[in-house]
């Protein structure tokens, strides 16, 4: 369990604003929270309180214009995604990359961020119906994701398969996987076995692997060369996120940008169309097949060939999850993954996320406004209100001992089936206009405990007990920030 | 539905359209029966001759019977005769059609091609650089090009590029004339195959398409020459039509770039270049093709005007001359052909659309 100690992501004082015609929407104001390794962190709050903007800020998906991350830190390990990037831009542009150069900055940052997105941090969205490109098949869209980030792994599996080709053949002849294999291909077969989809699927996987291995052997030198290159690029990329000097980082970026120019993505599109694809593509396809099976899609082999409009919402959300998982990310951000689905499907999707955390140790940020989902899924919860994190606590603690008036209101507004006579205690009013937010505590116009200090002073975040922080003037204690 | 079933259905649907169009043109041209008779004016000297013409056109019967006779003749390939000139009884319309169709087809196809290769990328560019200098320049340029009347732009191109009064091109690129292009007086025609010479002189043209025929004979100078002469008029047609496509592609791109699936693509780590080129553009292309079907009609009217300006001996010039000479038979025939072409173009567009967008079913 040592792997699960420490923080996967630290968000500190994140400030994101939208510059629109009416003024500046101060969507996030000093948002801070920590995501621990292997945990599920829930983010709750009313609509419009900035949950999605938080997620998009982490993913750098804030549309610009009008949005912009103004300041803050998003730390993945030692690497500060925001600051680190701006420094790189400094080096690359050799200019002051302030707001004026923002567009160029994004461009230059893109390379790095495209490595982080999908590979280290993945995201799934609220509307599965709209989340997939309607003109490409499910397969194409998963393969694209794999091809972008997992080329090394793919090549390794094929290479390993080619080393064990005779074993694979005998497995297939004997019917299914009977014993263990060593190397990457063994790991893959193990995975297939865990998925328990029966012999037919196993046979298909074996068939594909054998086919790839044969093709690999036919052009061994070429693919070995490819693998070597791919490993080099990977190690360079990994070193970018380590603790290296700025000059060095600039140098590596230069090398990588050159590499990216010979990008294989254009060729990928063409290759996908070919009937007889090279082993890299067909291994990516096999992997896509496995991924769909791992998110419990029945009949995965057929589904691969379907277009998004041919699938149901629940099925699509599984596909989206499969895409998000394709490169085994460390962090998964799920932005209301079940809101658009009906209840039974909801439960299945949540089950899937739970398995995911258990099997892969992925840290999950689960955004929702459904407290039931929070209770069921989360280890810790961050409550957001109008662009602030007002309270964070372990889930059980939050439900039994809520501190912040907003949290209390939120919990009381859940209808109780065991006590239907109890009147719902609804928080009056709505989330304030974020262009001109209330001064002091942003909750003060709606807070029944508000007193004079609340309208003038922004409440500090206070740690009331271990792991339980609250931003409210009613409490005193150790200030966390 | 199978593709061929779909095509057959659509072709069958063509029938009411054609009946409608012929009905209108027939009715309009027979509004003044005198006009029809005038065509034959030079020939009618005696009552006997008049009787023959009356019988030929079934003028003594009721109008609906005349129309049915006309329709029947149309479908059996008897399209009548071009208004008689020196030749008696005139050139068969169908023969004339075979001669006139290729130049127009070359012009229209090249113009379509130019519209697509200029319009679509400019639309994408305009969308990606929204509200920046490139965007403004593109939109302004497109707007200007669309606002310029094609005959005026045609005259400019004619004067500067093909028959220059101010020459800034090497002499072999241009045609010297008196400002008026005339296919029979091509001064600087290169190669063995002269365009549109009478069948007795020069080589025979196997297809009638100059661009193809020159290649059939392997006569490359003539080929490039032919290309040169078709390029400029088609550029005029393209420029005066492609604004719609630019605007449509721009708004379609903008719409698609705001879609959720683009966000998903970005969240996968797809480089922005591919987000635009692969994901968004592919979607925008689908809906833009449908517009192509719609603007094809305006493209053809541009073709007519441009042909007249450039004196290209195509369908447009023919239609123009026929209308000028009260040659109603030719007017009806050309209208008929244009109708069929427009409907066919829309059919092709629909089929293409279903290929580009898997959500669209052919029904
Ligand atoms: N593109 C944008 N332009 C202007 N303002 C925006 C934009 N996107 C978000 N905002 C603002 O940011 C604030 C937070 O929005 P956000 O989408 O994060 O809310 P949310 O908590 O995810 O709500 P929901 O539960 O409805 O998803 C809102 O006040 C919204 O008006
Ligand atoms: S700071 Fe004041 S207004 Fe804000 S929640 Fe606490 S008591 Fe209410
Ligand atoms: Mg949201």
Task: Provide the fold topology.
The complex is a heterodimer of chains A (481) and B (363).
Chain A: E1 7-20, E2 23-36, E3 40-44, H1 51-59, E4 67-76, E5 79-80, H2 81-93, H3 102-116, E6 121-124, H4 128-131, H5 138-149, H6 151-163, H7 165-174, H8 183-195, H9 198-218, H10 220-240, H11 246-261, H12 265-273, H13 279-294, H14 300-303, H15 313-325, E7 331-335, H16 343-360, E8 363-367, H17 371-377, E9 380-385, E10 388-394, H18 395-400, H19 405-412, H20 452-456, E11 461-465, E12 468-471, E13 478-479
Parallel strand pairs in A: 3-8, 3-9, 6-7, 7-8
Antiparallel strand pairs in A: 1-2, 1-4, 4-5, 9-10, 10-12, 11-12, 11-13
Helix pairs in contact in A: 2-3, 2-11, 5-12, 5-13, 5-15, 6-8, 6-9, 6-10, 6-13, 7-9, 9-13, 10-11, 13-15
Chain B: H1 3-31, H2 33-39, H3 47-56, H4 63-75, H5 93-128, H6 133-147, H7 150-162, H8 210-216, H9 220-241, H10 243-257, H11 260-268, H12 272-310, H13 315-324, H14 328-356
- The percent of residues in helical segments of chain A reads 40-55%
Given as residue ranges, the uncertain stretches of chain B (5+ residues, pLDDT < 50) are 171-188, 196-201
Bound molecules: adenosine-5'-triphosphate, iron/sulfur cluster, magnesium ion
Radius of gyration of chain B: 24 Å
CATH fold call of the largest domain in chain A: Rossmann fold
Number of helices of chain A: 20
Over all CA atoms, what is the radius of gyration of chain A?
A: 25 Å
Describe this structure in a few short sentences.
The complex is a heterodimer of chains A (481) and B (363). By secondary structure, chain A is an alpha/beta fold.
Task: Describe this protein's structure.
The complex is a heterodimer of chains A (481) and B (363). Chain A is of the alpha/beta class and 481 residues long. Chain A is built from 20 helices and 13 strands. In chain A, the strands form 2 sheets. In chain A, strands 6-7-8-3-9-10-12-11-13 form a 9-stranded mixed beta sheet, sandwiched between helices. Chain A has a 4-stranded antiparallel beta sheet with strand order 2-1-4-5. In chain A, helix 6 (151-163) crosses helix 8, helix 6 (151-163) crosses helix 9 (198-218) and helix 6 crosses helix 13. The longest helix of chain A has 21 residues, at 198-218. Chain B is mainly alpha-helical and 363 residues long. Chain B has a domain at 105-314: MetI-like fold. Chain B is built from 14 helices and no strands. In chain B, helix 8 runs antiparallel to helix 9 (220-241), helix 9 (220-241) packs across helix 12 (272-310) and helix 11 (260-268) packs across helix 12. Classes of the chains: A alpha/beta (481), B mainly alpha (363). The A-B interface holds A 59, 61, 63, 107, 110-111, 113-119, 122-123, 125, 127, 130-136, 144-145, 148-149, 260, 263, 265-266, 269, 307, 309, 320, 323-324 and B 258-261, 263-272, 274, 278-279, 282-283, 286, 356-359. Bound molecules: adenosine-5'-triphosphate, iron/sulfur cluster (SF4) and magnesium ion (MG). Residues 18, 20, 25, 27, 45, 47-53, 63, 66-67, 369, 434 of chain A line the site of adenosine-5'-triphosphate.
């Amino acid at each position: 369990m040592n792997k699960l100690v420490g923080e996967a992501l630290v968000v500190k004082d994140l400030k994101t604003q939208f510059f629109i015609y009416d003024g500046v929407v101060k969507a996030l104001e000093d948002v801070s929270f920590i995501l621990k390794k292997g945990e599920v962190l829930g983010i709750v709050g009313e609509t419009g309180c900035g949950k999605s903007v938080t997620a998009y800020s982490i993913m750098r998906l804030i549309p610009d214009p009008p949005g912009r991350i103004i300041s803050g830190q998003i730390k993945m390990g030692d690497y500060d995604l925001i600051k680190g990037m701006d420094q790189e831009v400094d080096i690359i542009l050799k200019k002051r990359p302030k707001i004026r150069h923002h567009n160029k900055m994004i461009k230059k940052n893109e390379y790095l961020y495209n490595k982080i997105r999908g590979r280290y941090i993945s995201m799934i969205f609220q509307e599965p119906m709209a989340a997939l490109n309607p003109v490409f098949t499910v397969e194409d869209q998963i393969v694209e994701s794999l091809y972008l980030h997992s080329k090394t792994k793919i090549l390794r599996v094929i290479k390993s398969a080619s080393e064990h080709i005779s074993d694979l053949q005998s497995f297939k002849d004997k019917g299914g996987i009977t014993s263990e294999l060593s190397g990457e291909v063994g790991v893959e077969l193990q995975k297939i076995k865990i998925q328990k989809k029966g012999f037919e699927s196993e046979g298909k996987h074996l068939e594909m692997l054998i086919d790839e291995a044969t093709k690999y052997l036919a052009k061994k030198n070429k693919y070995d060369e490819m693998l070597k290159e791919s490993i080099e690029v990977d190690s360079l990329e990994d070193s970018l996120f380590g603790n290296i000097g700025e000059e060095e980082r600039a140098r590596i970026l230069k090398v990588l940008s050159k590499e990216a120019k010979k990008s294989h993505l254009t060729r990928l599109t063409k290759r996908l169309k070919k009937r007889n694809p090279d082993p890299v593509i067909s291994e990516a396809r096999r992997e896509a097949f496995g991924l769909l099976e791992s998110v419990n899609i029945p009949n995965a082999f057929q589904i691969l060939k379907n277009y998004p409009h041919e699938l149901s919402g629940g099925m699509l959300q599984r596909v989206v999850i499969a895409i998000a998982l394709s490169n085994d990310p460390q962090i998964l951000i799920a932005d209301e993954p079940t809101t658009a689905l009906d209840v039974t499907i909801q439960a299945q999707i949540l089950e899937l996320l739970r398995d995911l955390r258990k099997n892969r140790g992925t840290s999950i940020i689960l955004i929702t406004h459904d407290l039931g989902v929070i209770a069921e899924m989360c280890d810790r919860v961050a409550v957001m209100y109008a662009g602030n994190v007002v309270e964070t606590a372990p889930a059980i603690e939050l439900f039994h001992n809520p501190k912040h008036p907003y949290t209390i209101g939120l919990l009381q507004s859940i209808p109780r089936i065991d006590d239907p006579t109890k009147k719902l205690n609804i928080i009056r009013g709505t989330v304030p206009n974020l262009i001109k937010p209330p001064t002091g505590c942003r909750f003060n116009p709606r807070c029944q405990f508000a007193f004079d200090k609340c309208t003038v002073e922004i409440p500090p975040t206070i740690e009331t007990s271990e792991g339980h922080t609250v931003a409210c003037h009613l409490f005193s204690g150790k200030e966390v920030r | 539905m199978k593709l061929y079933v779909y095509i057959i259905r659509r072709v069958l649907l063509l029938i009411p359209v054609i009946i409608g169009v012929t009905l209108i043109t027939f009715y309009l041209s027979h509004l003044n029966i005198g006009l029809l008779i005038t065509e034959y004016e030079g020939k009618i000297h005696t009552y006997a001759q008049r009787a023959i013409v009356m019988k030929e056109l079934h003028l003594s019967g009721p109008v609906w019977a005349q129309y049915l006779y006309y329709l029947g003749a149309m479908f059996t390939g008897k399209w009548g005769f071009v208004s008689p000139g020196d030749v008696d009884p005139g050139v068969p319309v169908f023969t004339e059609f075979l001669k006139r169709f290729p130049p127009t087809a070359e012009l229209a196809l090249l113009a379509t091609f130019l519209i697509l290769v200029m319009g679509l990328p400019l639309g994408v560019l305009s969308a990606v650089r929204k509200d920046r200098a490139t965007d403004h320049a593109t939109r302004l340029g497109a707007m200007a090009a669309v606002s310029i009347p094609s005959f005026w732009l045609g005259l400019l191109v004619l004067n500067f590029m093909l028959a220059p009064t101010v020459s800034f091109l090497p002499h072999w690129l241009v045609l010297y004339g008196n400002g008026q292009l005339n296919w029979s007086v091509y001064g600087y025609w290169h190669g063995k195959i002269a365009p549109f010479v009478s069948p007795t002189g020069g080589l025979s043209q196997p297809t009638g398409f100059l661009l193809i025929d020159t290649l059939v004979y392997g006569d490359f100078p003539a080929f490039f020459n032919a290309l040169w002469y078709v390029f400029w008029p088609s550029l005029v047609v393209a420029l005066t039509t492609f604004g719609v496509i630019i605007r449509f592609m721009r708004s379609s791109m903008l719409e698609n770039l705001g879609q959720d699936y683009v966000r998903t693509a970005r969240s996968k780590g797809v480089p922005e270049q591919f987000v635009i080129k692969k994901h968004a553009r592919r979607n925008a292309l689908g809906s833009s093709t449908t517009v192509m079907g719609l603007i094809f009609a305006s493209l053809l009217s541009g073709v007519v005007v441009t042909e007249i300006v450039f004196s290209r001996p195509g369908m447009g010039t023919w239609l123009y001359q026929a209308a000028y000479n009260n040659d109603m038979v030719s007017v009806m025939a050309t209208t008929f052909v244009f109708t069929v072409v427009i409907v066919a173009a829309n059919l092709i567009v629909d089929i293409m659309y279903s290929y580009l967008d898997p959500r669209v079913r052919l029904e």
